[in-house]
Amino acid sequence: MMRKYSVVINFALFQAAWFAVFFLQEQGMLVVALAISCMVALSPDKKNDCRFVLIGLVVAVSIEAVASGLGIIRYEGGWIPVWLIFLWAALLFSFRESLAKLFVLTLPTRLILVWLGAPGSYYAGQQVGLLLTIEPVWLFWVSYGGLWFCGFEVLRWLDKHPKIRREIGTSELVRTH
Hints:
The protein has seven helices and two strands. By secondary structure, it is mainly α. Helix 1 packs antiparallel against helix 2. The longest helix is centred in the N-terminal third of the chain and has 24 residues, at 46-69. The chain is globular, with a radius of gyration of 16 Å.
């Protein structure tokens, strides 16, 4: 019975984490940590999902470091904030459950969704003072969207890796082998 609702629960947990950061900023960390804890507890393949998230965090932080180093994004304090790393962990757990379908979409569909989605989320964060982006907006959208599309494709490859691939659970159900 739980599997039937796991996608919805996972999606709701990620949304709670995202909106906690959006509205509460650093004060939302407890909500984000709680959401991640629930995602781990509800994971049907904790070992491989945690591996995916830990390796995925290296990819995410690397992309953020490149974007920050190139001046595409700037954070207060100059370095990638802890809340963003936690939010990335929640998103990576979502890629294994509620957002698993993104990994099997066609290349043109992935390109459009990731190129529009990643910068859109950061642009929203800029509007509430979480970060600053390069101007003009179109340059931010093109550069950051392209950077994250490359990162997404690495995550997609990792999701299929034999030592990380889910043994059981949602992402296996949506795979096309």
